[in-house]
Amino acid sequence: MQIPIESLNLLVLNVGLARHQGDWNWKDVCSPFTRIYYVKEGGARIHFSDKVCELTPGNLYIIPAYTLHSCECHGPFTHYYLHVYEGFKAEWNVFDYYDFPTEVKNCEDCERLFELMCQALPEAQLPESNPLSYDNQSTFSSFVHRYHELPLYQKMELRGIILYIFSRFMKNASPKMWTTDKRMVKVLTYINEHICTDIDLTELSDMAFVTKTYLIRLFKKHFGISPLQYINKKKVERAQLLLITEDMLVKEVAAALGILDYSYFTRLFKKTTGKTPQEYRETMK
Questions:
Q1: What are the tens digits of pLDDT across the range 36-72?
Q2: Within the chain, which residue ranges are assigned CATH 2.60.120.10?
Q3: Checking DSSP bridges between strand 34-42 and strand 76-86, what pairing results, if any?
Q4: What class does CATH assign to 177-283?
Q5: Portion of the chain with pLDDT greater than 70, in percent
Q6: For residue 61, how many other CB atoms are within 10 A of its CB?
Q7: Which of 11, 186, 192, 240 has most Cβ atoms within 10 angstroms of its Cβ?
Protein backbone atom coordinates (compact mmCIF):
# COMPACT_ATOMS: atom_id res chain seq x y z
CA MET A 1 0.00 0.00 0.00
CA GLN A 2 1.08 3.59 -0.56
CA ILE A 3 0.65 6.54 1.82
CA PRO A 4 0.09 9.90 0.08
CA ILE A 5 3.23 11.98 0.69
CA GLU A 6 1.10 15.04 1.44
CA SER A 7 -0.36 13.14 4.41
CA LEU A 8 3.04 13.08 6.13
CA ASN A 9 2.35 16.40 7.81
CA LEU A 10 5.43 16.50 10.09
CA LEU A 11 6.11 19.82 11.83
CA VAL A 12 9.33 20.79 13.60
CA LEU A 13 9.26 21.39 17.34
CA ASN A 14 12.94 21.20 18.24
CA VAL A 15 16.27 20.50 16.62
CA GLY A 16 19.73 20.80 18.10
CA LEU A 17 23.02 19.23 19.14
CA ALA A 18 23.39 17.90 22.69
CA ARG A 19 26.57 16.89 24.51
CA HIS A 20 26.41 14.75 27.62
CA GLN A 21 28.78 13.20 30.12
CA GLY A 22 26.79 10.39 31.66
CA ASP A 23 23.85 12.69 32.42
CA TRP A 24 21.36 11.68 29.71
CA ASN A 25 19.22 9.57 32.04
CA TRP A 26 15.43 9.98 32.01
CA LYS A 27 12.77 7.57 33.25
CA ASP A 28 9.35 6.81 31.76
CA VAL A 29 9.27 9.43 29.01
CA CYS A 30 6.12 9.53 26.87
CA SER A 31 5.42 12.51 24.60
CA PRO A 32 2.88 13.51 21.91
CA PHE A 33 5.67 13.98 19.37
CA THR A 34 8.17 11.78 17.53
CA ARG A 35 11.87 11.88 18.40
CA ILE A 36 14.65 11.26 15.87
CA TYR A 37 18.31 11.06 16.92
CA TYR A 38 21.55 11.02 14.97
CA VAL A 39 24.47 9.89 17.14
CA LYS A 40 27.72 11.77 16.56
CA GLU A 41 29.96 10.40 19.34
CA GLY A 42 29.78 8.09 22.32
CA GLY A 43 26.89 5.86 23.20
CA ALA A 44 23.69 5.46 25.21
CA ARG A 45 20.70 3.14 25.59
CA ILE A 46 16.97 3.49 25.16
CA HIS A 47 14.79 1.09 27.13
CA PHE A 48 11.42 0.18 25.63
CA SER A 49 8.83 -2.15 27.14
CA ASP A 50 9.98 -5.04 24.96
CA LYS A 51 13.62 -4.30 24.09
CA VAL A 52 16.75 -2.26 24.72
CA CYS A 53 18.31 -0.27 21.88
CA GLU A 54 22.02 0.63 21.88
CA LEU A 55 22.73 4.07 20.37
CA THR A 56 26.02 4.15 18.44
CA PRO A 57 27.77 6.75 16.21
CA GLY A 58 26.78 7.24 12.58
CA ASN A 59 23.28 5.81 13.01
CA LEU A 60 19.74 7.21 13.09
CA TYR A 61 17.11 6.31 15.71
CA ILE A 62 13.40 6.98 15.96
CA ILE A 63 10.91 6.94 18.85
CA PRO A 64 7.27 7.34 17.70
CA ALA A 65 4.90 9.64 19.57
CA TYR A 66 3.23 8.21 22.69
CA THR A 67 5.92 5.53 23.06
CA LEU A 68 6.90 4.94 26.68
CA HIS A 69 10.70 4.70 27.06
CA SER A 70 13.64 5.45 29.35
CA CYS A 71 17.12 6.76 28.48
CA GLU A 72 20.42 5.62 29.96
CA CYS A 73 23.91 7.06 29.51
CA HIS A 74 27.09 6.41 31.54
CA GLY A 75 29.76 8.27 29.56
CA PRO A 76 30.35 10.77 26.74
CA PHE A 77 27.40 11.03 24.39
CA THR A 78 26.90 13.61 21.62
CA HIS A 79 23.84 13.50 19.41
CA TYR A 80 21.60 15.57 17.19
CA TYR A 81 17.91 15.48 18.08
CA LEU A 82 14.83 16.32 16.06
CA HIS A 83 11.33 16.49 17.52
CA VAL A 84 8.43 16.49 15.07
CA TYR A 85 4.69 16.16 15.48
CA GLU A 86 1.78 15.57 13.16
CA GLY A 87 -0.66 18.41 12.66
CA PHE A 88 -3.99 17.94 14.42
CA LYS A 89 -5.89 17.40 11.18
CA ALA A 90 -3.46 14.81 9.79
CA GLU A 91 -5.53 12.05 8.21
CA TRP A 92 -2.92 9.30 8.44
CA ASN A 93 -0.59 8.12 11.14
CA VAL A 94 2.17 6.38 9.22
CA PHE A 95 3.11 4.33 12.32
CA ASP A 96 -0.33 2.68 12.21
CA TYR A 97 0.35 1.29 8.75
CA TYR A 98 4.05 0.38 8.84
CA ASP A 99 6.48 -1.27 11.22
CA PHE A 100 9.56 0.95 11.39
CA PRO A 101 13.04 -0.04 12.49
CA THR A 102 14.18 1.78 15.62
CA GLU A 103 17.70 2.04 14.13
CA VAL A 104 19.02 2.76 10.64
CA LYS A 105 22.77 2.24 10.26
CA ASN A 106 25.37 4.20 8.29
CA CYS A 107 23.54 7.52 7.93
CA GLU A 108 26.55 9.85 7.92
CA ASP A 109 24.97 11.86 5.07
CA CYS A 110 22.24 12.96 7.49
CA GLU A 111 24.71 14.77 9.78
CA ARG A 112 24.96 17.68 7.36
CA LEU A 113 21.16 17.93 7.20
CA PHE A 114 20.97 18.21 10.99
CA GLU A 115 23.64 20.90 10.85
CA LEU A 116 21.60 22.84 8.28
CA MET A 117 18.47 22.66 10.42
CA CYS A 118 20.40 23.82 13.50
CA GLN A 119 21.80 26.77 11.55
CA ALA A 120 18.37 27.67 10.17
CA LEU A 121 16.59 27.38 13.53
CA PRO A 122 19.04 28.14 16.35
CA GLU A 123 16.08 29.16 18.53
CA ALA A 124 14.66 25.62 18.21
CA GLN A 125 17.38 24.14 20.43
CA LEU A 126 16.08 22.82 23.73
CA PRO A 127 16.81 24.96 26.80
CA GLU A 128 17.95 21.75 28.55
CA SER A 129 17.74 18.00 27.94
CA ASN A 130 15.48 17.03 30.83
CA PRO A 131 12.06 16.20 29.26
CA LEU A 132 10.32 17.78 32.25
CA SER A 133 11.70 21.17 31.16
CA TYR A 134 10.06 21.14 27.72
CA ASP A 135 7.44 18.39 27.61
CA ASN A 136 4.71 20.61 29.05
CA GLN A 137 1.82 22.76 27.87
CA SER A 138 3.36 26.23 27.87
CA THR A 139 6.66 25.21 26.28
CA PHE A 140 5.05 22.88 23.75
CA SER A 141 2.57 25.58 22.72
CA SER A 142 5.38 28.09 22.23
CA PHE A 143 7.27 25.62 20.02
CA VAL A 144 4.17 25.04 17.89
CA HIS A 145 3.54 28.79 17.60
CA ARG A 146 7.17 29.38 16.57
CA TYR A 147 6.89 26.88 13.72
CA HIS A 148 3.66 28.40 12.40
CA GLU A 149 5.30 31.85 12.36
CA LEU A 150 8.12 30.69 10.05
CA PRO A 151 8.09 32.02 6.48
CA LEU A 152 6.80 29.63 3.83
CA TYR A 153 10.19 29.06 2.20
CA GLN A 154 11.69 27.96 5.50
CA LYS A 155 8.84 25.54 6.16
CA MET A 156 9.46 24.10 2.68
CA GLU A 157 13.18 23.69 3.39
CA LEU A 158 12.52 21.98 6.70
CA ARG A 159 9.86 19.72 5.22
CA GLY A 160 12.28 18.58 2.51
CA ILE A 161 15.00 17.76 5.04
CA ILE A 162 12.60 15.98 7.38
CA LEU A 163 11.15 13.89 4.57
CA TYR A 164 14.65 12.86 3.47
CA ILE A 165 15.63 11.81 7.00
CA PHE A 166 12.30 10.05 7.47
CA SER A 167 12.80 8.27 4.13
CA ARG A 168 15.81 6.48 5.61
CA PHE A 169 13.45 4.77 8.05
CA MET A 170 10.75 4.33 5.42
CA LYS A 171 13.20 2.48 3.16
CA ASN A 172 13.52 -0.21 5.82
CA ALA A 173 9.89 -0.18 6.97
CA SER A 174 7.47 -2.99 6.21
CA PRO A 175 3.68 -2.84 5.86
CA LYS A 176 1.91 -4.31 8.84
CA MET A 177 0.41 -7.73 8.23
CA TRP A 178 -3.18 -6.52 8.23
CA THR A 179 -2.59 -4.14 5.30
CA THR A 180 -3.03 -7.09 2.90
CA ASP A 181 -6.71 -7.09 3.91
CA LYS A 182 -8.27 -4.32 1.82
CA ARG A 183 -11.32 -4.28 4.08
CA MET A 184 -9.20 -3.36 7.09
CA VAL A 185 -7.27 -0.73 5.15
CA LYS A 186 -10.56 0.87 4.14
CA VAL A 187 -11.95 0.76 7.70
CA LEU A 188 -8.81 2.12 9.36
CA THR A 189 -8.44 4.87 6.76
CA TYR A 190 -12.04 5.94 7.34
CA ILE A 191 -11.52 6.01 11.12
CA ASN A 192 -8.38 8.14 10.79
CA GLU A 193 -10.05 10.54 8.38
CA HIS A 194 -13.14 10.93 10.58
CA ILE A 195 -11.64 10.68 14.07
CA CYS A 196 -13.11 14.10 14.91
CA THR A 197 -16.64 12.88 14.26
CA ASP A 198 -19.01 10.37 15.85
CA ILE A 199 -18.03 7.14 14.05
CA ASP A 200 -20.76 4.52 13.70
CA LEU A 201 -19.75 0.83 13.79
CA THR A 202 -22.62 -0.13 11.51
CA GLU A 203 -21.25 2.23 8.86
CA LEU A 204 -17.81 0.63 9.25
CA SER A 205 -19.22 -2.88 8.86
CA ASP A 206 -21.19 -1.82 5.78
CA MET A 207 -18.09 -0.46 4.05
CA ALA A 208 -16.23 -3.70 4.86
CA PHE A 209 -19.23 -5.77 3.59
CA VAL A 210 -19.41 -7.80 6.80
CA THR A 211 -21.72 -7.93 9.78
CA LYS A 212 -20.96 -5.71 12.77
CA THR A 213 -20.20 -8.76 14.91
CA TYR A 214 -17.75 -10.13 12.34
CA LEU A 215 -16.12 -6.71 11.90
CA ILE A 216 -15.42 -6.52 15.63
CA ARG A 217 -13.92 -10.03 15.58
CA LEU A 218 -11.87 -9.32 12.44
CA PHE A 219 -10.62 -5.97 13.72
CA LYS A 220 -9.61 -7.49 17.06
CA LYS A 221 -7.77 -10.30 15.27
CA HIS A 222 -5.64 -7.79 13.34
CA PHE A 223 -5.17 -5.03 15.93
CA GLY A 224 -5.61 -6.75 19.27
CA ILE A 225 -8.40 -4.37 20.31
CA SER A 226 -11.97 -3.71 19.20
CA PRO A 227 -12.87 -0.92 16.72
CA LEU A 228 -14.41 1.12 19.53
CA GLN A 229 -11.29 0.76 21.70
CA TYR A 230 -9.12 1.87 18.77
CA ILE A 231 -11.38 4.85 18.04
CA ASN A 232 -11.36 5.90 21.69
CA LYS A 233 -7.57 5.51 21.89
CA LYS A 234 -7.10 7.79 18.88
CA LYS A 235 -9.58 10.35 20.19
CA VAL A 236 -7.75 10.50 23.53
CA GLU A 237 -4.40 10.95 21.77
CA ARG A 238 -5.83 13.85 19.76
CA ALA A 239 -7.28 15.26 22.98
CA GLN A 240 -3.87 15.11 24.66
CA LEU A 241 -2.39 17.09 21.77
CA LEU A 242 -5.18 19.69 21.88
CA LEU A 243 -4.95 20.07 25.65
CA ILE A 244 -1.30 21.09 25.47
CA THR A 245 -1.34 23.07 22.22
CA GLU A 246 -4.63 24.93 22.25
CA ASP A 247 -6.25 27.33 24.73
CA MET A 248 -9.58 25.51 24.68
CA LEU A 249 -12.01 24.55 27.43
CA VAL A 250 -12.14 20.81 28.09
CA LYS A 251 -15.72 20.68 26.80
CA GLU A 252 -14.52 22.39 23.60
CA VAL A 253 -11.82 19.75 23.19
CA ALA A 254 -14.46 17.04 23.56
CA ALA A 255 -16.71 18.73 21.00
CA ALA A 256 -13.78 19.07 18.56
CA LEU A 257 -13.48 15.28 18.69
CA GLY A 258 -17.17 14.68 18.07
CA ILE A 259 -17.95 13.87 21.72
CA LEU A 260 -20.86 15.97 23.00
CA ASP A 261 -21.22 14.17 26.34
CA TYR A 262 -18.67 15.94 28.55
CA SER A 263 -18.99 13.41 31.40
CA TYR A 264 -18.38 10.51 29.02
CA PHE A 265 -15.33 12.24 27.58
CA THR A 266 -13.89 12.81 31.07
CA ARG A 267 -14.44 9.15 32.02
CA LEU A 268 -12.93 7.93 28.76
CA PHE A 269 -9.88 10.17 29.11
CA LYS A 270 -9.26 9.10 32.71
CA LYS A 271 -9.69 5.42 31.88
CA THR A 272 -7.04 5.74 29.16
CA THR A 273 -4.50 8.06 30.81
CA GLY A 274 -5.20 7.69 34.53
CA LYS A 275 -6.01 11.42 34.78
CA THR A 276 -8.98 13.62 33.97
CA PRO A 277 -8.44 16.06 31.08
CA GLN A 278 -8.01 18.94 33.52
CA GLU A 279 -5.57 16.96 35.69
CA TYR A 280 -3.59 16.05 32.57
CA ARG A 281 -3.44 19.69 31.51
CA GLU A 282 -2.32 20.71 35.01
CA THR A 283 0.49 18.15 35.09
CA MET A 284 1.70 19.42 31.69
CA LYS A 285 1.97 23.04 32.85
A1: 999 999 999 999 999 999 999 999 999 998 899 999 9
A2: 5-175
A3: antiparallel
A4: mainly alpha
A5: 94
A6: 23
A7: 240
